[in-house]
Design brief:
Layout (H helix, E strand, L loop, with lengths): L7 E2 L1 H18 L5 E5 L5 E5 L1 E5 L3 E7 L13 E7 L19 E7 L5 E2 L15 H17 L5 E8 L3 H5 L4 H4 L1 E2 L10 E2 L5 H16 L6 E3 L2 H10 L8 E3 L4 H10 L6 E4 L1 H8 L10 H14 L4 H9 L3 H7 L4 H18 L6 E4 L9
Length: 367
């Protein structure tokens, strides 16, 4: 029986929970070991708190991010919140019907391990902390809820979000490419991380394309992997870094996203196996069995009158890579697959005319 995958929580939800915990301890001047927050979708979630401390004018705690069964680089990260301000003096009073936020300021900023935005095109302008709009609203709302609970007025609470090892974790992301320097982003629109979903990839594709457009790039290079991207960068040294988009296997999504932003002639940098999958019309190049693609390739070559020796190589091959190497990247064969890839790409995104850049298995551009 297949195990059901477990969902987790976004960095935005964890930051909001930590902020609520610290705000509650500052306002109430006592410890708490857990808090519940309302997620953007309307569901409630409860988070355990760690490292709780409070004093007269500040309190702090952290939440350990649990990404569920999603392979997330931030899984296990400590998302800290430090809240400082002027809490009321005892005796403390709850209730009273005070309007949320009346006479109270809430300031949110990043600390250690939170990146700053340096390029245009993202949801946050350059110079600001990389805390996305939805998490910002979540953090502000939970803190204002605490202020209402304790009827705090005429005060300003400052919330500092940090991730101690955020800068190190960020090195394993595309943050620097997107112009987020010095740490991680606080992300999430629903508060929930769905296990092994494509959304993290597609969100990154969207963000990278937005940055490319805002930076004035005239075209972009969509790469299926880092080796192909490096080959494209060596082959096209005039292209700015912002033009290089890591699309992974999400070919159809990336092409449609390009069309929305006016990139109608994107370059696709990939190795032969991925190019063949694109040519076969797969929306996701990780989806189909290679055997089916090879049979399709054989039928194309037979219909085009390719020599029997080449057809025999295709018939015997187990992988597309084997064919490319055995034929020494035969020019006619590569041209046929490129043409098919151009046609299939236009089916995914009408009006798009891709420019395939075939990359060899040695990290160089073949043609």
């Amino acid at each position: 029986m297949k195990k059901e995958l477990r969902s987790g929580y976004t960095t935005g939800a964890c930051a909001a929970a930590a902020a609520k915990g610290a705000a509650w301890m500052l306002a109430g001047q006592k410890l708490t070991d857990q808090v519940s927050i309302l997620l953007p979708g309307g569901a409630s979630a409860t988070f355990l708190l760690h490292g709780q401390t409070f004093a007269g004018e500040s309190a702090s705690c952290y939440v350990i991010k649990d990404a569920g069964d999603d392979p997330d680089i931030t899984n296990g990260a400590e998302v800290h919140a430090l809240v400082s301000g002027n809490p009321p003096q005892p005796p403390f009073r709850k209730g009273g019907g005070v309007i949320t936020g009346e006479g109270v300021g809430v300031v949110i900023e990043g600390g250690v391990g939170i990146g700053r935005v340096t390029k245009p095109g993202l949801a946050i302008p350059p110079g600001e902390w990389a805390i996305n709009p939805v998490p910002l609203r979540m953090i502000e709302q939970v803190v204002r809820d605490v202020l209402t609970e304790f009827t705090i007025k005429n005060s300003t609470f400052k919330i500092t979000i940090s991730i101690p090892d955020g800068e190190e974790r960020a090195k394993k992301t595309l943050n620097a490419r997107l112009g987020i320097i010095g740490g991680l982003s606080i992300l999430g629109t629903t508060g929930i991380v769905r296990p092994i979903s494509a959304k993290a990839w597609t969100d990154t594709i969207d963000s990278a394309l937005d940055v490319a457009k805002a930076c004035g790039c005239r075209t972009v290079v969509l790469s299926t992997g880092r080796t192909s991207e490096l080959a494209a960068q060596r082959h096209l040294p005039q292209l700015p870094e912002e033009a290089c988009i890591m699309m992974g296997d999400h070919i159809a999504y990336a092409l449609r996203a390009c069309a929305v932003r006016g990139f109608m002639e994107p370059i696709i940098a990939c190795q032969f196996a991925k190019l063949l999958k694109i040519a076969c019309g797969h929306e996701n190049t990780h989806a189909a069995a290679s055997e089916l693609d090879l049979a399709t390739l054989h039928s194309w070559c037979a219909a085009a009158g390719f020599p029997p020796e080449l057809l025999a190589i295709i018939s015997r091959a187990n992988t597309a890579r084997e064919i490319a190497i055995a034929t020494c990247f035969d020019a006619a064969l590569m041209s046929l697959v490129k043409t098919r890839a151009i046609q299939s790409a236009a089916q995914h995104a009408p009006g798009i005319r891709v420019q395939p850049l075939l990359c060899g298995y040695d990290g160089t551009a073949v043609a």
